[in-house]
Design a protein that fits this description.
This protein is α/β, with parallel strands linked by helices. The protein contains 10 helices and 16 strands. 29% of the residues lie in helices and 26% in strands.
């Protein structure tokens, strides 16, 4: 195997430990003790270790300014033993809240808003939720920010279905942060580690934000998935589209499509695009996104990607290019078997977990495919997560 060193778009070195006061307690940034160059080499080596047996691994695409890239920030709320309200992140693998006001990864405006909300709670005689007793009011705050549009969504997640003086609270919050474009109240009264509950109510604005990515406009709601690092996402999608080499004649399938981002970007260069996604809120967004961008050659379905693929294989549907971007667990066997049956000429596999990607690629390689290109992209600087795009082509 060719030795691969160096990185595209690498940044100036950062100091070891990086001056983050939360580094040891929080555990979210596993690689913060390395310079950014070292982090990129670490990810390159990891990708080669897991995927290098299939194909040459191109040099990882690094981020020019690898800070404050997270456009979605989630803070957990709780109380110290002394009764002081704190907000921050869960220490990794625990439910202990590490109090964090500023984080190197998170959007700075989002962090400011979260601190303001925490300070407002006592003024409004509101409490923080207590996970042990299941009592108390504010459980989480979720902030999403449109990178290009600047639109900001604040979701207040409460453990109770009563929100005393909610109108006054929202008014005070908007006075402090007039840049907020929508406020949502979400109720999560279940003993669960999920952040959002089912019930929610829009308290201000439209209940969604929009962002522009790869020249397309996307609506994003509270519960829909949207890539958290928009700068690197443009590079990721750019690579995926470039790998597919679309000519305008293809029937494209976007599996695990979220709010339809990849499919909509691909739709400019394809005859027809079909997207499938399990989350109904994301599918709703995807359908609206097709309209927002004036696209009529794309349709979205709410279903399990595996089941949908099996049905497509039964119907002997034609697919020329498959984009697949599954969650960390990767794809299931019914999905992968149906890929082998449908036999698209190209499969562009985007993954946020190279371990499961290697497993799934091994299956596809035993079932008619060979890997032609592998491109890691650093979507999550300072963490040990590696995002990677692989191009597979049908043999023969
Ligand atoms: N391609 C999108 C979303 C990728 S994240 C983007 O780049 O933004 C993975 C998506 O897969 C999430 O939206 C999640 O809701 C969806 N998902 C998870 N399990 C699924 C399944 N079994 N079938 C279809 N979609 C699924």
């Amino acid at each position: 195997m060719k030795k691969q060193q160096g990185t595209k778009g690498a940044t100036p070195k950062i100091a070891k430990g990086n001056g983050c006061e939360h580094y040891k307690k929080c555990g979210g940034c596993q690689l913060l003790n390395m310079s950014y160059e070292e982090q990129l080499s670490f990810k390159q080596v990891k990708t080669i270790r897991l995927l290098g047996r299939f194909c040459h691994v191109d040099e990882i695409i690094g981020m020019d300014k690898p800070y404050h890239y997270r456009n979605k920030v989630q803070a957990a709320f709780g109380c110290t033993r002394g009764g002081k309200i704190i907000s921050g992140v869960y220490q990794s693998s625990t439910h202990n809240i590490v109090s964090v006001d500023k984080c190197f990864l998170e959007d700075e405006k989002a962090d400011e808003i979260i601190v303001s909300i925490r300070k407002m709670l006592p003024e409004f005689k509101l409490t923080a939720y207590n996970e042990d007793t299941g009592r108390g009011f504010l459980r989480h705050v979720l902030v999403k920010r449109g990178f290009s549009t600047g639109e900001i969504m604040v979701v207040l997640v409460t453990g109770t279905n009563i929100f005393p003086s909610k109108a006054a609270f929202v008014k005070a919050l908007l006075k402090k942060h007039p840049e907020i474009t929508t406020v949502i109240w979400n109720i999560n009264d279940k003993r669960t580690s999920l952040v959002l509950g089912e019930k929610q109510q829009v308290l201000f604005g439209d209940g969604y934000i929009e962002d522009i990515l790869c020249g397309k406009r996307f609506r994003i709601s509270a519960k829909s998935f949207y890539q958290i690092n928009p700068v690197q996402t443009e590079k990721l999608y750019g690579t995926a589209i470039e790998f597919a080499k679309l000519t305008g004649k293809e029937r494209v399938f976007d599996a695990y499509c979220g709010i339809g981002t990849i499919g909509l970007v691909a739709s400019d260069k394809a005859k027809e695009v079909i997207g499938v996604e399990l989350n109904p809120d994301a599918v709703k967004d995807a359908k609206i996104n097709a309209k927002l961008n004036g696209k009529e050659n794309i349709s979205f379905y709410c279903d399990d990607a595996g089941k949908f693929m099996v049905a497509m294989a039964k119907e002997k549907e034609k697919v020329d290019v498959l984009f697949m971007d599954p969650p960390r667990a990767g794809s299931d066997l019914p999905f992968l078997k149906s890929v082998a049956t449908l036999a698209p000429k190209k499969v562009v596999y985007i993954s946020c977990n190279v371990e499961t990607q290697a497993r799934d690629i091994a299956f596809l390689c035993k079932n008619g495919y060979k890997v032609k290109k592998i491109q890691p992209v650093d979507m999550f600087p300072h963490t040990n997560h590696v995002e990677c795009v692989a191009l597979l082509e049908r043999k023969g």
